[in-house]
Specification:
One of its GO terms (biological process) is monocarboxylic acid metabolic process. InterPro entries: KR_dom, NAD(P)-bd_dom_sf, Sc_DH/Rdtase_CS, SDR, SDR_fam. Pfam families: adh_short (PF00106). This is NAD(P)-dependent dehydrogenase (Short-subunit alcohol dehydrogenase family). By secondary structure, the chain is α/β, with parallel strands linked by helices. The protein has six helices and seven strands. The protein has one domain: Rossmann fold. Helix 6 links the parallel strand 6 and strand 7. The radius of gyration is 17 Å and the shape is globular. The N and C termini lie far apart (41 Å).
Length: 240
């Protein structure tokens, strides 16, 4: 997929954070982009910002909830209507609840698994027929928490360990169909995740545009080569 001009990408959780950074870099490369969010207001704001890159009409925003397969299918139907299908899927939507197991609520556990794991399943089920047709590329955004467990991370670790395993199994299921599959596992990223407000203290972290560039680089890899699992961490740790 060395030439990305006029390819189409479907990005869940694309109104901010990593999803937005990926959308920005893909649009710069000439890709049509569909971004989803649970809030229509959020996707409208993101589309307005992305249009200012100088490619109006190359991005559309859809209110869709990854927890609902029908919602993902409706968003995919719009992608077909507007762009004829998709070539790239970025399963990015995620949530984090962090607490000792004694304090973690059933609701927090369920939401974490529903969004971070079942949500990716729903996205894949809705988009895979189009990806097979286009011999496209599926990228899931996992985390270093998908191999490294930590205190207060039982729900998040479970979801991301599961996501890494799910993605690698899907890779084996569809590789002979001509579909590439990669999971990206970032460490600390400067986003609004878990209530953070990015500022100068986050300068040492991975930036969202860095992950966007990584996605572009993966898409441009020769067809014969597949980096199926990519760990990404800040070059240095915080000095604080």
């Amino acid at each position: 997929m060395e030439n990305l001009q006029n390819k189409t990408a479907f990005i869940t959780g694309g109104s901010k954070g990593i999803g937005y950074g990926v959308a920005e870099k893909l649009m710069e490369a000439g890709v049509n982009v569909i971004i989803t969010s649970r809030s229509q207001q959020s996707v409208n704001k993101a589309v307005d910002q992305l249009d200012k890159l100088g490619h109006p009409g190359k991005c559309i925003g859809v209110e869709a909830d990854v927890r609902d397969l029908n919602s993902q299918q409706r968003a995919m139907d719009l992608a077909k209507q507007e762009f004829g299908g998709v070539d790239i899927v970025i399963a990015n939507a995620g949530v984090g609840h962090f607490a000792p197991i004694q304090e973690l609520t059933p609701e927090q556990w369920q939401e974490t698994l529903d969004i971070n794991l079942t949500g990716v399943f729903n996205t894949v089920k809705a988009t895979l027929p189009s990806l097979i047709e286009s011999k496209g590329y599926l990228i899931t955004i996992a985390s270093l928490a998908g191999t490294n467990f930590f205190a207060k991370g039982s729900a998040y670790n479970a979801s991301k360990f599961g996501l890494v395993g799910f993605t690698q199994a899907v890779m084996l299921d569809v590789r002979q169909e001509g579909v590439k599959v990669t999971t990206i596992m970032p460490g600390s990223v400067a986003t609004h995740f878990n209530g953070n407000t990015p500022d100068e203290d986050d300068a040492w972290k991975i930036q969202i545009e860095d992950l966007g560039q990584l996605v572009v680089d993966l898409l441009r890899m020769p067809a014969r080569t597949l980096p199926s699992k990519v760990e990404v961490r800040p070059s240095q740790t915080s000095k604080g």
